[in-house]
Amino acid sequence: MKTGTTIAAAVGITAVAAAAVYMIDIDQTQEGALPDVDIALEGGQLPEFDAEVGTVSLGETQVEVEVPEVKVITNTETITVPTLSVDAPGDANDS
Fold first, then answer.
1. Which residue from 49, 53, 58, 59 puts its CA 20 to 30 A from 33's CA?
2. Using CA atoms, how far apart are residues 2 and 52, in angstroms rounded to an integer?
């Protein structure tokens, strides 16, 4: 059972890492400019950016699973399992 849990955790981490590529949306809002080249080095401007990041929600829900007993009889029981919600920036459900 530990191997199954390890594999499930690795798959979950890989899915979150893959989704992270799509979890950030950076838009340049202002161009950069070089300063005037003179002794005073006045002027110049750094570019500005707006960054939107996604959200990740971790929760739990109850599901029914078959749990074997020592007598090799299975019963259906309700257990709590984790849930994961990933919302990329700009999704329709943003408020």
1. 53
2. 38
Q: How far apart are CA 75 and CA 72, in angstroms?
A: 10
pLDDT digits (tens), the chain, 95 positions: 578 788 888 888 888 887 777 777 778 888 988 887 666 667 778 888 888 888 888 888 899 988 877 776 778 888 888 888 888 887 655 55
Global pTM value = 0.26
Q: How far lies 38's CA from each of 35, 43, 46, 51, in Å?
A: 9, 10, 18, 34
| Residue among 93, 68, 66 nearest 78 (CA) | 66
- In what helix (H) or strand (E) does residue 83 lie, and over which residues does it extend? strand 74-87
Place of tokens 């007598």: 71
Task: Please give the helix or strand (H or E) that residue 75 lies within, else none.
Answer: strand 74-87
